Amino acid sequence: xxxxxxxxxxxxxxxxxxxxxxxxxxxxxxxxxxxxxxxxxxxxxxxxxxxxxxxxxxxxxxxxxxxxxxxxxxxxxxxxxxxxxxxxxxxxxxxxxxxxxxxxxxxxxxxxxxxxxxxxxxxxxxxxx
Length: 129
What we know:
By secondary structure, the protein is an all-alpha fold. It has one domain (9-128). The chain is built from six helices and no strands. Helix 2 runs antiparallel to helix 5.
């Protein structure tokens, strides 16, 4: 049994890791779709947007893996992204984007609860020592 397998993995932390992984996957898909919709009038915008989405998606995937392995370093980036996403969901609130806003807010709130609950905090604090 490895050191990671011997650590206690709270269910809330694993749930947060799954949500962060899904966010990373979603961003990667959006990056690929952005490249697929590339046309000659917006090459620079499409490429930079795709690189941003793919990079952020890869970063979130790495954080998701680290959370699943109970690595404390992943908590800071995950909390920062979730807080930004919560603020982003507020800007989407209203009109046709309300379902998107609700989904963003729900996933972010659930992820924050999973990462910041006491059992997760104890498990991640044990990684720091």
